[in-house]
């Protein structure tokens, strides 16, 4: 700790607000300071860091190159400090709060009943769902860009940095078009002869089906790959292609699209849908409240 520069944290708070607003007047208002006191504090910070930090252009305070570099380091750190201080307070759902959740289109669909209940019951709560672009975005969770990840795995896993809640286990089925294959008997030979649609949420070249086949020294022909599970069944309509996907969604969408559901002719490991969060936030009242609401909803439903 001895190598940490000796600087008033309030000056860094002023820097963060001014960087975001570009206005001394607005910064003073946000920090409940007089404009004169805000200007004096900015002068002190400039002297301490030996840089002008902000230049007035057309009545707007524009950040210098050094200020931009400083912001990249200081703003995330202040967010962590702020979050740490908030964690010492009891969570009150009557206050305005936003939860940021990363999910695939499928896991977001699975979350819908719970989120509908939550947002209806607690009017000051809002949720932002972000596309889950990698299976476990650990860095984004660590830097508080995300509160929770709703993802899935095919085997039990342990992580030193992540806490997790097992939600449910699901199995796979295979879909075919009723019109193009009205009497299809799905044997392993037919499965390997047909062309397939691959659902690849993270643009991977192989899925769990391909890995399972590879263990048997077999391979299928993937003719189309898509990251979007919810729209993938549409791709199978009016084709002789096959699509292997979670039964939970297939059972809802297949009747609408006139698709036939088959048990896959090979043993595919079940998937596990989970909630993940960063372990340093294990006792964060905000996350504890969310997880408790989640557990309570699924216990009652």
TrEMBL record:
Residue ranges crossing the lipid bilayer per the database entry: none
SUPFAM superfamilies: Periplasmic binding protein-like II, Winged helix' DNA-binding domain
Residues making up the signal peptide according to the UniProt record: none
UniProt keyword Transcription present: yes
GO MF entry, a single one: DNA-binding transcription factor activity
HTH lysR-type domain sequence ranges: 7-64
Coiled-coil segments on the chain, per record: none
Assigned protein family: Belongs to the LysR transcriptional regulatory family.
Protein name per the record: HTH lysR-type domain-containing protein
Organism name: Pseudoalteromonas luteoviolacea S4060-1
């Amino acid at each position: 700790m001895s190598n940490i520069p000796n600087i008033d944290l309030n000056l860094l708070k002023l820097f963060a607000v001014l960087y975001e607003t570009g206005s001394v007047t607005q910064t003073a208002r946000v920090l409940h300071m007089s404009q004169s006191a805000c200007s004096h504090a900015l002068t002190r910070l400039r002297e301490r860091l030996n840089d002008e930090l902000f230049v007035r252009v057309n009545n707007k305070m524009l950040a210098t190159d050094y200020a931009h570099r400083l912001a990249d380091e200081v703003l995330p750190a202040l967010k962590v400090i702020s979050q740490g201080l908030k964690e010492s307070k009891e969570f009150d759902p009557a206050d305005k709060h936003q939860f940021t959740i990363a999910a695939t289109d499928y896991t977001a669909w699975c979350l819908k009943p719970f989120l509908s209940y939550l947002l209806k019951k607690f009017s000051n709560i809002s949720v932002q769902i972000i596309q889950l672009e990698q299976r476990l975005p650990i860095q984004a969770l660590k830097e508080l860009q995300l509160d929770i990840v709703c993802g899935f795995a095919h085997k039990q896993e342990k992580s030193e940095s992540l806490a997790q809640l097992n939600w449910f286990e699901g199995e796979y089925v295979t879909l075919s078009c009723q019109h193009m294959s009205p009497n299809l008997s799905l044997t392993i030979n037919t499965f390997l002869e047909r062309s397939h649609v691959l659902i690849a949420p993270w643009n991977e070249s192989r899925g769990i089906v391909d890995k399972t086949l590879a263990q048997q020294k077999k391979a299928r022909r993937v003719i189309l790959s898509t990251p979007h599970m919810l729209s993938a069944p549409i791709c199978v309509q009016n084709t002789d292609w096959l699509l292997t996907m979670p039964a939970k969604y297939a059972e809802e969408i297949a009747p609408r699209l006139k698709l036939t559901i088959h048990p896959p002719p090979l043993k595919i490991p079940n998937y596990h849908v989970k909630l993940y969060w960063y372990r340093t936030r294990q006792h964060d009242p905000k996350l504890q409240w969310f997880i408790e609401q989640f557990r309570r909803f699924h216990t009652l439903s």
